Amino acid sequence: MRLTSKGRYAVMALVDLARFDNINPVSLRDISLRQGISLDYLEQIFSKLKKNHIVKSIRGNQGGYVLSKNPNDIKLTNIFHAVDEKVKTVQCKKDSKKGCNGRSTKCVTHNLWDELENHINSFFEKKSLEDLIENKKENRL
Fold it and tell me: Which helix (H) or strand (E) holds 33?
């Protein structure tokens, strides 16, 4: 199981945005420079985040992006969903009668990986952007 760079970068960029957007809208160029993420890639990510109402864009000289909700109301699950990131530990579909190994039965460790996936998704459902901002503040002390 592994998150793609799209999911990781979306979270990094939103934490960066959340730390600065209470002052002014934040430009993607600034996020790009601070986080070392390609500006083109950020544009793709933020297009999806905007479409899913996680961020709003502000036009003009001082334009950029702001969060559309309080950081405490944006869960990591919301972010992953917005950028089409799926956390899966098994290759088969949960409802499928076929197993992930292509046979008619599930592999002998299927339930273990399925349970792990549930734990991971539960963890992401509980974590908000606010939690990550608070962690960053604690680390700076």
Answer: helix 28-35
